[in-house]
TrEMBL record:
Keyword set, alphabetical order: ATP-binding, Cell membrane, Membrane, Nucleotide-binding, Translocase, Transport
GO molecular function: ATP binding; ATP hydrolysis activity; ATPase-coupled transmembrane transporter activity
SMART domains: AAA (SM00382)
Top-rank taxon: Bacteria
Protein name: ABC transporter ATP-binding protein
Record-annotated ABC transporter domain positions: 3-244
Organism in which the protein naturally occurs: Vagococcus allomyrinae
Membrane topology classification: Peripheral membrane protein
Length: 280
């Protein structure tokens, strides 16, 4: 499913300065987008616009259009929209329903609300518990979990609803490197199922490996947008509050110091290795 933003400008209630400024972007179906930018650049706000929470829950002044699969976002009913666009909160503590007493029930909660048949629900929860490696935690109370565990449960609850578009706001912020990599592998799996994914994430090395495209926000503006290759090898990223993958940054420095002559920057170690063989 595609998602289009046209000339979005948004100002929070009681504020005078817009936090999103004339932003237009086309999110193509079936692709994974990394959304980057420094703190307060507007990433979470943009997520809330893309899932319709602005202006339905948080008011303020919004100009422009949000179009999901050819239909204006306002034309969707709230329930319908929630089944099309899934969202995982930046803060996983917010995500837990607060009404369920086990991880197992927490994952089933959204499906229950959507009226998914019981047998199907049981099967889906079992699959997700396996996929997200939650077997040992399934009988625990959601509030007993660590931040990282909550993040995994939160993501499983979203995946359970099977939305076509998934917006994941810093889903790995509390996770160790191993669990982070596992989340990225799940993202890849979701992509294979044809999902459209928008991933707010600071870990650019992993974005370089797993995304199709990168959007960089700076001060509420879409400062850069393009393929992973275009954006994450562009040194401008550093001036705009973003980061480059470690390998890219290393070669950028080496080129600046005339230590190596290459005509393009690598994104990954594998690419760097290939480039160096060409040089020899
Ligand atoms: N509820 C709110 N009311 C007023 N201003 C807000 C609100 N939420 C966020 N902001 C402001 O909007 C800007 C963008 O914030 P946010 O979207 O959270 O950025 P990011 O996710 O990139 O850190 C910041 O200046 C922040 O202070
Ligand atoms: Mg944020």
């Amino acid at each position: 499913m595609s998602l289009t933003l046209r000339n979005i400008t948004y100002t929070y209630p009681l504020e005078t300065e817009p936090v999103i400024k004339d932003l237009s972007v086309e999110i193509e179906s079936g692709k994974v987008y990394g959304l980057i930018g420094n703190n307060e650049s507007g990433k979470t706000t943009l997520c809330n616009i893309m899932r319709g929470f602005i202006p339905s829950i948080y008011q303020g002044d919004i100009q422009g259009e949000v179009i999901i699969n050819g239909q204006a976002i306002e034309a969707y009913e709230a329930g319908e929209l929630a089944s099309v666009v899934g969202y995982s909160f930046q803060n996983p503590f917010t995500q837990m329903s607060g009404v369920k007493e086990t991880v197992y029930e927490e994952i089933a909660y959204g499906m229950e609300n959507l009226g998914v048949p019981r047998q199907q629900m049981i099967q889906k929860v079992a699959e997700l518990i396996q996929l997200f490696k939650l077997t040992d935690l399934q009988n625990k109370h959601p509030f007993e979990l660590s931040g990282g565990q909550k993040q995994r449960v939160a993501l499983a609850s979203i995946v359970a609803l099977d939305p076509e578009i998934m917006i994941l706001d810093e889903p790995t912020s509390q996770l160790d490197p191993q669990s982070t990599e596992e989340i990225f592998e799940i993202v890849q799996l979701l992509k294979k199922q044809g999902k459209t994914i928008i991933l707010v994430e600071h870990k650019v090395d992993l974005l370089a490996e797993y995304c199709d495209a990168i959007l960089l926000l700076e001060g509420g503006k879409l400062a850069l947008a393009g393929t992973v290759k275009e954006v994450l090898t562009n040194p401008e990223v550093l001036k705009l509050g973003g980061q480059l993958p470690q390998v890219t940054q290393f070669f950028l420095k080496a080129v600046a110091e005339n230590k190596v002559k290459i005509d393009r920057l690598p994104l990954t170690l594998t690419e760097a290795y290939g480039l160096l063989q060409e040089v020899d």
